[in-house]
Design a protein that fits this description.
There is one protein chain. By secondary structure, this protein is mainly α. It is built from three helices and no strands. It has one domain. The radius of gyration is 16 Å and the shape is flat. Keywords: Membrane, Transmembrane, Transmembrane helix.
Length: 73
């Protein structure tokens, strides 16, 4: 059974790769490296969730955004 990687997991790999390249070849502040590593870990976690949990998280995010925008109107 072949499964496709989610978009979030691919973004996590990309951010992790960029942080490693920046760390090896450039003098980047630790704060920038920390932000990149935090983003990559966050995307890894979201991308690796089971489908049921992932869909529940997407539903909660959507309802949170809709509630927040409706309160501003």
């Amino acid at each position: 059974m072949k499964t496709e990687m989610r978009k979030e997991l691919k973004i996590g790999w990309g951010a992790f790769t960029i942080s490693l390249i920046l760390n090896c070849f450039f003098d980047v502040p630790k704060m920038v490296m920390g932000i990149l590593m935090g983003l990559s870990i966050s995307f890894f976690i979201v991308g690796a969730l089971q489908e049921r949990v992932y869909q529940g998280l997407k539903h909660r995010k959507k309802s949170f955004v809709e509630n927040t925008l409706s309160k501003k109107s």
